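hey team, just a heads up i'm posting the complex here instead of the shared drive bc the drive is being weird again. everything in one block, sequence lines first with there labels, then the predicted structure for the whole assembly after. its two chains so it's a bit long, scroll down
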Amino acid sequence: MNKIIDVTELALRDAHQSLLATRLALEDMAPACADIDRAGYWSVECWGGATFDACIRFLNEDPWERLRTFRRLLPNSRLQMLLRGQNLLGYRHYEDGIVDRFVDKAAENGMDVFRIFDALNDIRNIRHSVGAVRRNGKHAQGTICYTVSPLHTSETFVEMGERLVELGCDSICLKDMAALLRPQAAYDIVKGIKTRCGEGVRIHVHTHSTTGVTLVSLMKAIEAGADCVDTAISSLSLGPGHNPTESLVAMLDGSGYEARLNKSRLQRIKDHFAALRPRYQAFMSNIHGVDTDIFDSQIPGGMISNMESQLKQQKAENRLAEVLLEVPRVREDAGFPPLVTPSSQIVGTQAVFNVLMGRYKVMSSEFADLMLGYYGKAPGERDPAVLALAEQHAHKKAIVQRPADLLQPEWEALSAAATALAGCNGSAEDVLTYAMFPQVAPAFFTSRALGPKNLGAAPDVAPSGTGVEPGAAVPLRTPVAYDVKLNGHSHRVLVTPVGA
Amino acid sequence: MNKIIDVTELALRDAHQSLLATRLALEDMAPACADIDRAGYWSVECWGGATFDACIRFLNEDPWERLRTFRRLLPNSRLQMLLRGQNLLGYRHYEDGIVDRFVDKAAENGMDVFRIFDALNDIRNIRHSVGAVRRNGKHAQGTICYTVSPLHTSETFVEMGERLVELGCDSICLKDMAALLRPQAAYDIVKGIKTRCGEGVRIHVHTHSTTGVTLVSLMKAIEAGADCVDTAISSLSLGPGHNPTESLVAMLDGSGYEARLNKSRLQRIKDHFAALRPRYQAFMSNIHGVDTDIFDSQIPGGMISNMESQLKQQKAENRLAEVLLEVPRVREDAGFPPLVTPSSQIVGTQAVFNVLMGRYKVMSSEFADLMLGYYGKAPGERDPAVLALAEQHAHKKAIVQRPADLLQPEWEALSAAATALAGCNGSAEDVLTYAMFPQVAPAFFTSRALGPKNLGAAPDVAPSGTGVEPGAAVPLRTPVAYDVKLNGHSHRVLVTPVGA
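-- predicted structure starts here --
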């Protein structure tokens, strides 16, 4: 008898977050849901991460309505989300009352599996969400953010797994957001947790495919006893995304393991996303093939493009190489945090500041907070001199307690502020939307009635009519006349995309 | 101590054959050779397969001069070629005297390692080349063509490996030209040969990456004892090509195995090919990402595009689905040959004939020859009715002996015909070129003096600073091919973002 390997499908969340800048419209996902719902996945990741932000910022779409739609379209599936622990889906710490309300509402609207992580792997930032999920009778998955540093060994990750099990998590996720998880490390960590905590502890493994090695890592994780792996349907896979679901199925053939998925449904899901992907070309990641430089720089691809655009704004594009060398120093000063939202942005921005203005001459308030413990406990020792500078910059002292313990209850104030906004419907969901993104929510509430935009529909062919925002880059579909200077002569040139 | 895993770099042959239709110009490969020569590869595949044909058909380049150039540019490397056994680099069987001359000349011009295969896995078609290579004191690698059929089990491939070892091969190659080799099969076959023939038998594994699973297969082959694996530098990898060299290196980190390659040289090789790849966009394979349909159809991607173009010529594009269903029936009728040059073309063309004109109403002479044993012994039983039809069509009887045993010495006749051609330099190399491609060689001899073409040079587009002005907000991240009308004339223009 083969051991069944469960699969989480990422197409509806992390796949398009990683490949299409989180821009996939709900109406482009909905037609695939009947097949996804019956393909045999253990769960369908479809919410959380950056999707909440993208919904209200770019798509004029109510993220709670999206969740309810998925619940309706995927009646037989476990819906899964990615939750940033005490940060929820925002970029700051929330007090426990807000965490409770958020988890209650997510559960009430249909969420089943909550994958909960903290960017610093600080268990204290995960604990309250885990309790809230379990109180709702839902599945709380505690997450280890995998990273590479002089401090991080397989043993440190096994220890964290053990602590997550002690916390009462229903399962453990080993999450490799930068595709740095090599096969042997995957094997050692999964094996270590199973050995330490018992074979019955359920382990899920999430990898990205950027470096080209992580399907092998999934194989070794499975050999070590992993119960579930994350993949994306092939037409929304690879590059900075994930390993293809169909390749995982084929990989296991004859191995004594089996991913029991319905092949004809996978075929239809693949065809569906293959057909719409070209419409989102403008948002497509420019990482193709594999990027193994990450193993040396340990800087995820998304972080590099962030830093590039910051440098461009300062007309200092030529200093990227210096910034790439500065990132590991800043990371070491901060005690080797994993580089994942929000620590990747914080460390990257500070590295840019250091190069442009001198080391720690200017310090972002976020970096000061990171140094001072306001995001949680760093994995290693922080540099004492930089710590002292951070206290000067921020005019406050370093803390050792859980950051959320410093916060006062804020539901009433947030509720009052949100319900005062034009277009706010007064629901707890709207208050939570405002709580996550107070800068973005007001405009969204005002425009919500216009309905969701489909950014994948080019304006000249758009059936849905909402079209593309003015100024948004769209792929060239129609002939365009250019004046072209060639060898000093001006020519009128008509350019037509081949096969358009 | 880690076990060292040897690596064969494919960039100079199979990688551009698979990704760029074998069009890569020698002058675009030469600058990478110094780094390739010192990166630590076990061998550098750089000749044979379709490169000989492509040189004289498309590039106006003397393939023998290419070999001498590589010999000069790669003084520290084992040069490796792919040889089609008794077919050499052509598409018919040659008598043993021609095989001897070809191998002698290849060795004399610098070839070290001869990977020798037969499309039907008929050892009799491999035997003479192996002897010729060994007589020259060079490395003879006997090749198992991996395929999937009701007849083919891991055991059948292990048995073939055993026979190749008995033949005196210096090493065995397990060659997976269609990316069908799943991890467990890779493990079982390599383990089986090592167990049966001894750990000292050297095993190389060649896979394509089309289905996305074969880096895992390389890992399992290595765990089973494989000594050397084939990869391509990342910027010429993936899709219908091969697994990335850098990913292999990273995959093995910490595993007890090690590919001892020089990382900074790999980086420079990668950068070199990354920079020139966009210039070859017009020849780029249109398979992106992964294609796992092959597992069901067992029809390699290249074969499908061949059949598509045949159907298009007959204005019958809409009948591809029928042809795809017909291929496995034709293959079964022919005794389940592996689908690789030339059997893939022969089976594919017959399937097209069957669909368009009725089953075996018309039979290609090549398919009749395949049925009648003129390419060698099929792996399984052939359909008796189709065999009888083949005898009728071809007006000859089926044979059981080695096809080359029916051939008369032909060097003198070929030599006379070749040297009579304008532009033939009278060398044995020129006679062999004529022997391989008698239809193409005459025109090549005439135009040879004009020198090699670089089809990647995109002569219509000036190197930089010209081209399309960024008047529209079009995010060109990758080169795009356009039809451009200029002064009433149509040009195919490749537009590449400056600095991309």
